[in-house]
Specification:
This protein has 33 helices and 27 strands. The chain is α/β, with parallel strands linked by helices. The strands form 5 sheets. A 7-stranded mixed beta sheet has the order 13-23-24-25-21-26-27, with helices on both faces. It has a 6-stranded mixed beta sheet with strand order 3-4-2-1-5-6, sandwiched between helices. The two termini are 69 Å apart.
């Protein structure tokens, strides 16, 4: 954000600063990192550079208002009643907004003097991670704010604490991560905004992390929260003596939590969002999926950032906002405990077995509003009558849903039973109070009034009658006065000077000025042919009518405050009900998905198995279905081979467009779906728990950070080789293709051996280096798979079937022809390919595989050579070396020459 641009050199005599502009500059100086929405009547005005930025971002007219320091003041404005629309666009563009409201009525300011300025101050800071308005929130996405803290570890490095909270729903989670796991944890929470101390934000080693995130970054004072006071600050926020009652937290987690609540307090300016007590999430209980893998697998969104086309968009059949957010959270954080996974699968299975129940409860779920977000708005005094109604309807619907589940019998699922019991505890009294109080048609804003039902409050009804039925009241009064004065021509009228008055003809007026009528009618004015009178009753009526609207609104607002306070006081119970609804919604959605698409229940245990029969890619299958095509299912078995304790590694060969990348991704997605507690797109699936999932699929430059495609590939591969464990699943596609053939083959070869000998993980390794398939004869847990193709009249037909075996060619020339390369290029490519294949037949790669030692043996023999005794005399080795001309050797010939030279040295002593 920008502070007001420093005034340029004044031209001539500087203009005096007006009181209003002086107030603006003071408020802006206190909020330099925000655009300032400065309330002036029915508009929020922006001045100086704020106006220029907002004008460009919002596409609104930039004008000017007055002068400052001899220069025109840029200005633009937005109507108060459309502020949410403009705030949404500014926040989406990465801006922060300080909302400066009028804190008193202009009439009160005038009492202090003609030149007095209305008191104004910032009432809240609107940032990406702290918004609560329905219009600014995505119902299906948690609006997560993540605070990151770090402390020195005993080894001199850093440990990191993360606090993830969503003030729109009150969720609050704490977690701890190592330096290697920080990016993965942040990616798991998928935050809208990240709060971090300036020291960590400016750390060059973390620079790439901040640059890659999609979230807004909010750097805080350099060192952040003091570790010694973090627990005290958290306890003060929750108004408890100690946070020990919430559980055991590390120091970094406490610092992160305190940083988060301090930021929330700063942005909310005196309002305290009601947060749930912090819950610790241990990374050891969740599958670790790093940011690159989430992006490659397109779990939540596609590589282009679109939600449509991601896995979540395919599996999300939830009917409520809370259910959608819970489903997204489960997809982002698959479990490692088979028992917990089974509990979720039992819930889905129970509902699959009761299709009539699912058909009945899903329409009910669609009618349930988002209670938690409505409750937060009420607690922050930003709610309206519709938020009251949302909670009342939600509580009533929860009772009905619980009764339906109880009647159907869901005892086969402990998760469904817990959710049913939670909903059954919904407070019927609160729901009845809200239903009794609210009218049928509700305004959006409480200040508009008219939201309390007629008959709910007698005083309010009388006040409304006076306000809304003034004509009837005056007509009745006029009829009585006419009868008492015996003057049928008497009329009650109104003007701005006299207010309400009685007007009668001249002759009748003469009677009204005499006793006894003069006691009631006081003469005010004589007109030509008429006389005007006032009465005490008319004066009182006028006063009551003038204040009736304000009084009626005041009564309604008091009722609103009372009902809101009752709901906020019952927040814990309402949260329990809302979460029960979300659990039911997710289970019903996954049951509907499984029944509709023919998905099956996976078997998940603590083995190292990974056996999938008839597996399908859920996103690709959905896309093909829309085109009227079917998906070709494939099996995958990475279970430990006979006599081996570790899982298998499969080399997948075959041409481009034959389905290798789809095959790799679908098996990773099936593992994620299984461990999040969903049925899977397969005929049968047995998944031994995967602790970490790594995917290196596809290629992209990172030019902004000076990284080529190959560098990005190597960085991601390095992360995999350094972190994968025996329980991990690794998906690698085309390692080494971004550099020269010999370099790439060498890297792919060494990577494959490292996975087999060091990581000992389960892996799918797609490659066009067909030479690597010969390793299957020497590495016990390595198997070959290939994608089937057929040639037909010079064309290649992709069958998209993955079978045992190895490809002997990649059909790249045929694919190039399909892509539209010129015929002359295709013809030349075929000629060159024929020559290269002839050379390969003469010097097969299998011979090279046999000659090179395995990775483990090579490492074992890698010892420093003994020092030389002195200069070496000319010998056969030197003569052979001198005879070589490196520039004339092919990569294969160079490698063979190197081994001949090595052989001349003789066995090592």
């Amino acid at each position: 954000m920008h502070a007001p641009r420093p005034p340029l050199q004044p031209q001539g005599k500087p203009d005096p600063v007006t009181p209003v502009m002086a107030q603006f500059l003071d408020v802006k100086a206190a909020n330099p990192d925000c655009l300032l929405f400065y309330r002036m009547g029915d508009f929020y005005e922006l001045f100086f550079e704020d106006a220029e930025v907002a004008s460009r971002t919002l596409g609104i007219v930039l004008t000017k208002r007055g002068r400052h320091q001899g220069l025109d003041i840029p200005m633009c404005g937005v109507p108060v009643h459309r502020a949410d629309e403009y705030l949404q666009r500014l926040i989406a563009a990465g801006h922060r907004v300080a909302v400066c409201e009028q804190l008193e009525d202009p009439a009160e300011a005038r009492k202090r003097g003609a030149k007095s300025v209305v008191r104004r101050d910032v009432t809240r800071l609107v940032t990406a991670g702290t918004i609560t308005e329905d219009a600014l929130l995505d119902p299906a996405r948690a609006n997560t704010l993540v605070a990151v803290a770090r402390l020195r570890a005993a080894d001199g490095g850093f440990t990191y604490g993360l606090a993830a909270l969503d003030i729109s729903t009150g969720t609050f989670q704490l977690a701890e991560a190592s330096a290697d796991g920080l990016a993965a944890e942040i990616a798991r929470f998928d935050p809208r905004e990240i709060v971090v101390a300036e020291a960590a934000h400016e750390d060059k080693t973390l620079g790439p992390l901040w640059a890659e995130t999609r979230a807004a970054i909010a750097p805080q004072p350099r060192e952040g929260i003091d570790a010694a006071t973090a627990a005290t600050r958290l306890a003060a926020y929750f108004e408890v003596a100690s946070v020990d009652a919430f559980g055991q937290f590390s120091r970094t987690e406490l610092v992160a939590g305190a940083t988060a609540v301090a930021y929330v307090e700063r942005t909310q300016r005196g309002q305290r969002p009601p947060l749930s007590v912090p819950v610790r999430e241990t990374s050891s209980a969740l599958m670790r999926i790093d940011a690159a893998t989430r992006a490659n697998l397109e779990l939540g969104r596609t590589l282009s950032g679109e939600r449509a086309g991601g896995l979540l968009s395919i599996i999300d059949r939830t009917a409520t906002g809370g259910g959608a957010r819970l489903l997204a959270a489960r997809l982002a954080s698959p479990l490692l405990d088979p028992a917990a996974i089974a509990t979720r699968l039992d819930a889905v299975a129970c509902l699959i077995a009761s299709p009539d129940l699912v058909a009945d409860i899903r329409p009910r779920l669609r009618r349930i509003p988002d209670m938690l977000r409505a409750l937060t708005r009420l607690a922050l005094e930003r709610g309206g009558p519709r938020d009251l109604l949302a909670i009342g309807q939600g509580l009533q619907a929860a009772q009905e849903l619980a009764a339906r589940l109880a009647a159907a019998g869901v005892e086969a699922s402990s998760e469904l039973c817990e959710a049913r019991d939670a909903m059954a505890r919904a407070d019927r009294g609160l729901a009845r109070d809200i239903e009794a109080a609210l009218a049928e048609m509700l305004p959006l804003l409480k200040r508009d009034g008219g939201f309390v039902r007629e008959g709910y409050d007698r005083v309010l009804d009388e006040t409304r009658a006076l306000r809304d039925e003034s004509r009837r009241v005056i007509a009745a009064l006029q009829a009585r006065y006419a009868q008492e004065s015996d003057c049928r021509a008497l009329r009650v009228k109104h003007n701005n000077m006299l207010g309400f008055f009685v007007e009668v003809p001249q002759a009748a007026g003469e009677r009204l000025v005499k006793e006894p009528l003069s006691r009631v009618f006081q003469h005010r004015q004589t007109m030509a042919g008429a006389m005007r009178f006032s009465t005490v009753e008319l004066g009182e009526l006028e006063s009551r009518i003038a204040t009736a609207a304000d009084k009626a609104l005041g009564i309604e607002l008091a009722i609103f405050t009372r009902l809101s306070a009752g709901l906020v006081a019952a927040r814990s119970a309402i949260e329990t009900v809302a979460r029960g609804i979300a659990v039911i919604d997710v289970a019903a959605a996954l049951a509907d998905l499984a029944c509709d698409l023919g998905w099956v229940r996976p078997r998940v245990d603590r083995s190292l198995a990974l056996e999938i029969k008839g597996g399908r890619h859920p996103v690709v299958e959905a896309a093909l279905k829309r085109e009227g095509k079917s998906f070709v299912a494939n099996a995958c078995d990475l279970s430990p081979p006979a006599g081996e304790g570790m899982g298998a590694i499969a080399i997948v060969t075959g041409p481009n467009m034959a389905g290798k990348s789809t095959y790799l991704r679908q098996n990773a997605l099936i593992a994620i779906l299984a461990q999040m507690g969903s049925y899977v797109p397969a005929e049968e699936a047995h998944i031994g728990v995967v602790d970490k999932l790594f995917s290196r699929v596809g290629a992209a430059d990172d030019l902004a950070r000076g990284r080529s495609t190959f560098m990005v590939e190597m960085i991601e591969t390095a992360a995999i080789l350094n972190q994968a464990s025996e329980r991990s699943l690794v998906i690698l596609d085309e390692i080494g293709r971004g550099t020269a053939t010999s370099d790439g083959l060498s890297i792919a070869w060494a990577t494959l051996e490292h996975l087999h000998e060091r990581n000992r993980c389960r892996a799918l390794f797609a490659t066009h280096f067909h030479e690597l398939t010969a390793l299957a004869g020497r590495l016990a847990r390595l198997v070959n798979l290939t994608s089937l193709v057929r040639e037909w009249k010079g064309d290649v037909v992709f069958l998209h079937e993955i079978v045992s075996g190895a490809a002997d060619r990649s059909y790249g020339v045929q694919v190039a022809r399909l892509a539209g390369l010129p015929p002359s290029v295709i013809a030349r490519a075929k000629t060159i390919l024929a020559g290269l294949e002839r050379m390969e037949r003469e010097k097969p790669a299998a011979k090279l595989i046999e000659e090179l030692p395995l990775f483990a043996a090579a490492v074992a023999r890698a010892a420093p050579p003994p020092p030389l005794a002195g200069p070496a005399a000319p010998d056969a080795l030197r003569e052979a070396l001198a005879a070589l001309t490196p520039d004339e050797l092919t990569p294969r010939e160079a490698l063979e020459a190197l081994y001949r030279l090595k052989g001349m040295i003789g066995p090592k002593k």
